[in-house]
Amino acid sequence: MSVVLRRVNRIVLALAGLVLVVLGGAVLAAALDLSVPSWWPWSGPDDVLLTRSQRQHWRGESWWWPTVIAVLGLVVLLALWWLVVQFRRARLREVLVDSGDGEEAVLRGRALEDVLEADATAQEGVARAKVMLTGRRTAPRGRVALLLEPYAAPAEALTTLASDALGHARTSTGLAALPTEARLRAAKHRARRVT
Q: Which of 32, 64, 87 finishes a domain?
């Protein structure tokens, strides 16, 4: 999860919590019949949150219900977007590469992903590979999905992936480590007919 997303989450949760605490405190103070200022929205335990006239004030207007539905729809869409963003991992845009002369070069994350995919797909027994880099640009992390041919040995595919594709990536970028999560799936195939 990116730093910006974490900050936005904390701000949204802090604001939502603050609003809920203030509203809950106001209702609780009125319900317990505490001495509250004159401008307080609720004055006692017998007071209602919204009077009948307040609830029905705008009902007769032609714009009221479309506005309520539009606002609620927007709130639902924003909540769904926020939920989807929580589960989406941010793709790494660039990787810092030590060029050996004290300077750092910038390598596009997508370019490194493409090379890793090509190396992994070139392995014996791998039908298709998909790579995604996440993490920080100084410490990337990899996620590899391999689709294996029916005859491929999973242990051998993982060993080759670690030594060849990931080894080449570590060497070429000068990274000390490239932690990677690999997911393996077998390609669907028809059963052989024995005669």
A: 87
Phi, psi of 188 (to 5 degrees): -70, 140
Q: Among 13-27, 88-102, 108-122, 161-175, which stretch is predicted with the lowest mean pLDDT?
A: 88-102
Domain extent for 170: 94-186
The total domain count for the chain is 2
Q: Provide the 3-class DSSP secondary structure of residue 108.
A: strand
Identify the three-state secondary structure at position 59: coil
Rounded to whole angstroms, how far apart are CA atoms 190 and 195? 15
Q: What is the CATH number of the domain that holds 158?
A: 3.30.70.1350
Residue 165 DSSP SS3: helix
Q: Residue 98 above 60 pLDDT?
A: yes
- Cβ contacts of 116 within 8 Å, gap of 6 or more: 129, 131, 142, 144, 165, 166, 169
Q: 110 lies in a domain?
A: yes
pLDDT digits (tens, 9 = 90+) for 158-195: 999 998 889 888 888 888 888 999 999 888 866 666 66
Residues paired with residue 188 on neighbouring β-strands, in sequence order: none
Residue 191 belongs to some domain of the structure: no
Do 24 and 76 lie in a common domain? yes
